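Supplementary Text 2. Reproducibility record for the structural model of the 212-residue chain.

All settings were left at their defaults, and a single model was retained for analysis rather than an ensemble. We include the record here because the model underlies the residue-level annotations in Supplementary Table 4.
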Amino acid sequence: MPQAQTAPKPHRLSAEDWIACALQTLIESGIEAVQITALARRLDVTRGSFYWHFESREALLDALLTHWRRQNTGVMVEALTGAESLDTGILALFSVWVDDARFDPKLDQAVRDWARHSDTLHGAVKSEDDARVAAIAEFYARHGYEQPEAFIRARVLYYTQISYYALSKEQDEEMTDRLGYLEAYFRAFTGRDIDPEIARAYRAETLEASKP
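Retained model, structure tokens:
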């Protein structure tokens, strides 16, 4: 007689699965929607699955903030640390900001919306903003800008980009249009002209990477 086939064991969700679901929910619906029961329903599992990985909802929220810091601040610091010149450093930041796989603008805005309802988180977001500005200011100083100019240029560059995310949607501006302003943006943020060959190579590379 053929052996009876047993049903495959269901895949046990990992902590990363819960975090990914919570991040998507945060982005789509805000922090109030990030509830254990709602997430379990979305993942089609019981609430008990959650407690294999997290002691409480607060522990999950802490994990979301850790992910946000690691992704959105870490990638900026990494880009600037490896830059050998002013041109390549500024363009490395631009590359981070036009690549949602590296810097997630929707997550950044969702965390900022969340912070509007939490004094504690508001302070955490301010600390991250300060850390990002400090990293950019240190980069400017490393390439010959005196203080306070390095700090002010860093603030102008950073807050311009964060405001762009807040006020714009992806479909509002084509990549070709954004890149058409490359030299003007670079001059506005640095007071210097970009190397034409570096600009040409960056524009070609970015356009190629943005193709569907």
